Amino acid sequence: MKRIVYYVASSIDGYISGINDDVSGFLYDGKGVERYLEDLKAFRTVIMGRSTYEFGYKFGVEAGQPSPTYAHMMHYIFSDNLRFESQSEQVVVKRMDIDEVKQLKETSETDIYLCGGGKLAGWLLENKQLDVLKIKLNPLVIGKGVKLFEGLGGSYQLELIESNTYENGLQLISYSINY
Question: Which domains does the chain have, with CATH numbers?
Answer without folding.
Answer: 4-178 (3.40.430.10)
